[in-house]
Fold this protein.
Amino acid sequence: MGQTGSYSGSCFCGAVQFTVSGDPVAMGYCHCDSCRRWSAAPVNAFTLWKPAAVHVTRGAEKILTHNKTPRSSRKWCKSCGGHVFTEHPQWELIDVYSAALPEFPFKPGVHVNYQESVLRIEDGLPKFKDVPAEMGGTGTVIPE
Ligand SMILES: [Zn+2]
Ligand SMILES: [Zn+2]
């Protein structure tokens, strides 16, 4: 743990270390096909931060990037293959995977891209068909 309000994260092997500080802009689950295939999991838990809140403290030279689209620069550690975060330049936000932040108190507020879901999660949280209108989506909420 770093200073108050700061949480440490790392890749699978620990070669890449980073911190997040302050409060995230949003937290939730993304069900989109890209996130599922990238994370090799049925759903991806995200925390979105302003770029200034995310600092790589070790192993920056080990971080590689893949852009399937210009909207997402997906980052991982070249030593272990562990994923760390995804930059979303058009939103000026960084998605740090909650699984890479073991001590961060993850409090999901929303599900996005639920129309692509392969794992229904009946937790009572709003389920956006794609993404909220302020993120460029339709803002349509669909049933669980
Ligand atoms: Zn690693
Ligand atoms: Zn996604």
User: Anything to note?
Assistant: The longest helix spans residues 33-39. The first strand starts at residue 6 and ends at 10.
